[in-house]
Amino acid sequence: MTHPAQPKASHFINGAYVEDTAGTPIPVIYAATGEQIATVYAATPAIVEQALSTAKAAQKEWAKMTGTERGRILRRAADIMRERNHELSVLETYDTGKPLQETLVADATSGADALEYFGGLAGSLTGEHIPMGEDWVYTVREALGLCVGIGAWNYPTQIACWKGAPALACGNSMVFKPSETTPLCALKVAEILHEAGAPAGIYNVIQGMGEVGGALVTDPRVDKVSLTGSVPTGKKVYAAAAEGMKHVTMELGGKSPLIIFDDADIDNAVGGAINGNFYSSGQVCSNGTRVFVQKGIKEKFLARLAERTGNAILGDPMDEATSFGPMVTENQMNIVLGYIEKGKEEGARLICGGQRADMPGYYIHPTVFADVTDDMTIAREEIFGPVMSVLDFDTEEEVIARANDTEFGLSAGVFTNDFSRAHRVIGQLEAGSCFINSYNDAPVEAPFGGVKASGVGRENSKEAIKHFSQVKSVYVRMGDVEAAF
Ligand code: NAD
Known about the structure:
Elements: E1 11-13, E2 16-18, E3 25-29, E4 36-41, H1 45-64, H2 67-83, H3 85-96, H4 100-106, H5 108-122, E5 129-132, E6 135-143, E7 146-150, H6 156-169, E8 173-177, H7 185-195, E9 203-205, H8 210-218, E10 224-228, H9 231-243, E11 247-251, E12 257-260, H10 266-278, E13 290-294, H11 298-309, H12 330-345, E14 349-352, E15 367-370, H13 377-380, E16 387-393, H14 396-404, E17 411-415, H15 419-428, E18 433-436, E19 455-456, H16 461-467, E20 469-476
Parallel strand pairs: 7-8, 7-10, 8-9, 10-11, 12-13, 12-17, 13-16, 15-16, 17-18
Antiparallel strand pairs: 1-2, 3-4, 5-6, 6-20, 11-19, 14-15
Helix pairs in contact: 2-5, 2-7, 3-4, 4-5, 5-6, 6-7, 10-11
Bound molecules: nicotinamide-adenine-dinucleotide.
């Protein structure tokens, strides 16, 4: 019998599901059991061509609609997503293995927020009138054209919406390629957008590995590329986009610092460290994986952290009581277990976890290392799993320098009850998305993105509009033209 997660076809192009079984088969594995639940096929060159030509052809008419009309469609799609939240959350859980406890509140709902927010903004995208004496200049905010979105595997619904909603609000069309690890959810986003009234060809989804992503990025018809992925992939995609002078948004990896001063509320700080390391089993780009704890509260902090981490419920992700799911794939699990071994070898003190869970699926116990030093591998490289490194520090000046000593710059957090210190420290941290007495909140109203190797551009908020549109300026002369001859 066909599994309920099996999509109708691999791709969604020009308002309909499309199949081409000549592409490389991509198995979809449910991380909680290891069983294959679906198969999709990577896009063949013919499918890539169909998606790009369709999106190119549809964009101009879409851009001609008023922003209010486009926005209405996005807002209708948001309503449909919320009505189907349970069904979409179950699919997200099949796609990623993340527990339903999380997917019910963080995925389709976050996607719906983006559709609603950018749907609301679409009608207010205007230019300026700039007086020049008798003459004047006016500016027009125009769509970029055909945009490509490429997703990572940790938030497949959210990423498809965070890229699609602002792109469509501005009058662009999109071809979206989900991660080959989680190909299912973006198809539902496309289906819902078209059900809500998006014209055929405006939002298309095609499957495939890096090769298909590469074919999209290098196509001369494409005006913009928005990638969510790792730094090495980001460097390749950015370079390829530069060849064609395309606009880019790069949402990449991190190794973010979370700094806890000794005057902080310990339970709130422990809560922040848990949210910033163990949500989605640690598979979150903005995680605060270097937890710097001031020496005075170190042992108290570690004791409370170990106690609360022991309350994590590993189990069937479809059971709403489960609070901690598996790694997305066996490969990701092995990568993370490799880092855990490195941590032990290099002399970090294991506080809890540190091994695979004795159950089917790709579960690793939430792991905390203490006495981690700046040079250890687990403190330098992005692990993308449930491994928290706790480092000690003495002074504010010292911790700021150590926090910034990394190629990454996605996020940073500070816990302290001294508000001047909180703002002073945040002001000096090299990161794009920061938190004071909190960690990992990502509302659509707030800009999200990184500095340094963690990325270029911002998603969400009004900032995203700037990255999916461009400004045309028009000088209007009222009098005669003066010329030298
Ligand atoms: P990845 O870099 O392996 O792949 C990302 C996407 O790029 C996939 O769809 C992949 O098929 C595609 N791709 C790979 N090579 C390509 C190429 N040469 N040209 C075009 N496309 C190509 O990343 P992943 O393993 O799927 O995701 C994990 C990474 O994503 C982590 O580093 C994480 O930090 C990052 N991430 C960042 C954010 C953010 O918003 N900053 C959010 C989630 C994940």
